[in-house]
Amino acid sequence: MSGDGARAPPESAVTRRIALMRAEDDAEATAAELAARGFEAAIAPAIEIRALPAALPDGRFDALVVTSPHAFHALEQAERARLATTPLHVVGQRAARAAREFGLALAGEPAADAAALAARLARTLPQAARLLYLAGRNRKPTLEAALVAAGLSVQAVELYAAEAREAWSAREACAVAACDGALHYSRRSAALAVALAARAGLAERFRAIDHVCLSADVAEPLLADGARRVVSADRPDEASLIAALARALAPSPKG
Description:
alpha/beta, 11 helices, 10 strands
């Protein structure tokens, strides 16, 4: 991952603590990225990932579409082997890494976001091509709608669910209360984090910290709740998100 402006603060600087609201496995990987840049992470997930019972459809598909690494983890080994010869298209570096870890080759570079992937597939695949989308239950309809509008046939199989948590533990709430900022990766998890903070009695404290979001869409629930310092990444990827965090928490110039 490129530095892209997200260099670690000097050793003499105070370590800033950042709240991570994404699912625990994802948050642990991000925590390692933050530690390498001199930040300390506080993991307080707003969602939990649960595998769903699902059977892959029969027949041949022209392309396999995946937008989250959780889809690969939910597949059985035999299912991954069966799909190994289907051209694989993914969104994001995390999904790309997970695919490689499971021995699946990508048909192209990972797309920056769902819109970019839909545009690429609409441009490169023939009309009526059959796509298998390994999806989560809680998802936006944007990708499927764009693919169908382009004349492609999409069959989605829901392999996992990102379920909302009812409350943070006392330890998690204390950790969030001590944070200087928070990273937000999806609109839904941002909205859930607002609700979790309120249930923990941290609503005002949560509004006061720096919130750094993957996009303007992700930021909307925070702004609607009255958060006072909200910024969005220049591009919807983690490198840009962490770069935006470094800028947001950079010391003010003296003088």
